[in-house]
Design brief:
Layout lengths: L5 E9 L8 H4 L2 H14 L5 E7 L10 E4 L3 E3 L5 H13 L11
Parallel strand pairs: 1-2
Antiparallel strand pairs: 1-3, 3-4
Helix pairs in contact: 2-3
The structure holds FE2/S2 (inorganic) cluster.
Length: 103
């Protein structure tokens, strides 16, 4: 496998030694992850990889995801239209400011 140019980590709310507890999974983050995988494929963005990850510790701003190497942290991503905008941001190289977690 070639190393991805962009790696997107979507919070699945897992905590070490326990089940998913945080808000991201409860708010459907795994459905959004699946949508993102499909949309990236449809757009031919084979240089992007998507992974689920444990709690990103920004639960009050979930569902959360982070895009590397850009280090763009996005919060309150709750529907497919928002995922589309985030993918647009990766394509353009310009972050979707309105969803960025500032600190
Ligand atoms: S459960 Fe997603 S940031 Fe904590």
């Amino acid at each position: 496998m070639k190393k991805p140019k962009h790696h997107i980590f979507v919070c699945a709310s897992f905590r070490a030694g326990g089940d998913a507890q945080g808000v991201c999974a409860k708010k459907g983050s795994m459905n959004l992850l699946q949508y993102m995988v499909t949309e990236l494929s449809d757009r031919g963005m084979a240089d992007c990889m998507v992974s689920s990850t444990g709690c990103l510790k920004v639960c009050d701003r979930g569902p959360a995801l982070v895009v590397y190497p850009e280090n763009w942290w996005y919060g309150k991503i709750e529907n497919e239209a928002m995922i589309d905008e985030i993918i647009d941001s990766i394509e353009s190289g310009v972050p979707a400011e309105k969803y960025l977690i500032a600190d």
